[in-house]
Specification:
- InterPro entries: L-rhamnose_isomerase, Xyl_isomerase-like_sf.
- Keywords: Isomerase, Manganese, Metal-binding.
- This is Sugar isomerase.
- The protein is about 50% helix and about 10% strand.
- The protein is of the alpha/beta class and about 425 residues long.
- It has a single domain (about 45-350), classed as Divalent-metal-dependent TIM barrel enzymes (TIM Barrel, Alpha-Beta Barrel).
- The strands form three sheets. It has a six-stranded parallel beta sheet, covered by helices on one side. A three-stranded parallel beta sheet has the order 1-2-3, with helices on one face.
- Helix 11 (about 355-360) packs antiparallel against helix 12.
- Bound molecules: manganese (II) ion.
- Manganese (II) ion binds near residues 213 and 275.
Length: about 425
Amino acid sequence: MQLEKHQIQDLNQDALPSHQRKFNYISGEVKNAEEVVKKLEAFNIAIPSWALGTGGTRFGRFSGGGEPRSLEEKIEDVGLIHALNRSSNSISLHIPWDIPDNAASVKALAAQLGLHFDAVNSNTFQDQKDQALSYKFGSLHHVDKSVRQQAVEHNIQVINYGVELGSKALSVWLADGSNFPGQLNFRNAFQNTLESLQEIYTALPDDWKVWVEYKPYEPNFYSTTIGDWGQSYLLASKLGDKASTLVDLGHHLPNTNIEQIVSLLLMEGKLAGFHFNDSKYGDDDLTVGSINPYQLFLIFNELVEGMDARGLDHATGIGWMIDASHNVKDPIEDLLQSVEAIKIAYAQALLVDYKVLKDAQLNNDVVKAQDILQSAYRTDVRPLLAEARLRAGGVIDPVSAFRKLNVRGELIKERGLKTVATGL
Ligand SMILES: [Mn+2]
């Protein structure tokens, strides 16, 4: 299914008077409204191929209808999201859940929908059918060299798939760790991981990056070999300039000050990018901004200030991707909400006057500093997002458009009610 231009225009026609009123109001209130709209237009967030089906838990999975049955259908779904919000112009593939058997045709389909391929993700956290050696006790950190070698070769294969699609980064998340004290020698596990990553690093094309993701626990519950940003940063530093640290918001213990981590990684030029999601307790992978939108704003506050300080382009300076998946919402509606939440936080951060904030900091005016941040956070920037979408050819209100156009109903007609997306 593809959306026609006139469908989008008809919907916008109805919503236009109300939007215009709100946009005029905020344009009068916010002095850099025009600049914010332009930056929002340029800002895109990659959609992961595994988020287009209803996610499960370890207890069960309740698939919705009309889920994508193939990589091509997943690309079509991202095309639908992008047609509505004009902010999701790339897809991040997970290998082997989504192997591009025919790269040329997959690439052509994506291009036709205005999409390109973001980072490719390897998977050594589960065993695949016909796999020679098991990852039960880890992959890149494994005590057995031949298991490490198999995992290295898989990562190189993922790079090769990515090259065919025009990706520019490999993202590595390892489940490697231990469940019980004494199970592992921490130094050996780290050294093995480093050596394996060095082999993968050597296979990177010149214009590629490797993003090293960390996570404190789960599926291992005593130690994780890349457990926090320090361990990831250590690996990335030893690997070289093409390696950096990927921050997944759910991969922190409760109440971690993620914005401070982000600030320092940016300072060191080692922030690869983000996997956005939200959580209450652990790696809950909930819709971005659904639990703690203020934290998301504080992260963007550090990002905008830190990226400006390093002269980085906000849209392209680091990687922006959603990594969320759960089991009660329509996956497309969920992703539309996530993209919206990310852009709201970004727009709010763009309202912060960093010169005034710096003055407040230098004068230890704590009250003023808090007030500057919270004034930005409490501004309803949604009309700025809607205006950016409108100018880019998208819809004023994506979720309501998705419903009014009965997109899910059409997808069920095309694909059937009992479909289960491949992957998670
Ligand atoms: Mn992630």
